[in-house]
Write a structure and sequence with these properties.
Length: about 120
């Protein structure tokens, strides 16, 4: 599936499926996995790898479709986090503040309260 297809999944009003999410993020996770142990041994922080996740819009996984995200469920997010952890175990830990904030924001954003992702 192409990036354009997953973008259409976001813009056509439906949440992305497990398969669409995995197809979108698997190449990024594979790229992150390359050199993960060398990074760990060198004690190099994964700033560049976080940038790759940002470029792929990984931070928008739980953002609702109506707000420009993928509309993924918590179950889908956890599946992706497990895949990411298999590639680089430090990254899910580094991103947990982001996911906590997103979850909190999703509870306070209602049809009458306009919220923006990020």
């Amino acid at each position: 599936m192409s990036s354009a297809t997953i973008e259409n999944a976001v813009t056509d009003g439906r949440a992305a499926t497990d398969r669409e999410l995995r197809e979108r993020f698997a190449p990024v996770f594979d790229r992150v996995a390359q050199g993960a142990s060398a990074r760990e041994q060198a004690r190099r922080l994964p700033f560049e790898e976080v940038g790759w996740l940002r470029e792929a819009r990984f931070g928008a996984v739980r953002v609702s479709v109506e707000h420009g995200g993928f509309g993924a469920s918590v179950r889908q997010l956890f599946g992706l986090l497990m895949d990411l952890a298999a590639a680089e175990s430090n990254l899910p830990q580094a991103l947990r503040v982001h996911w906590s904030r997103m979850q909190t924001s999703s509870r306070i954003c209602t049809p009458t309260v306009r919220c923006r992702p990020g």
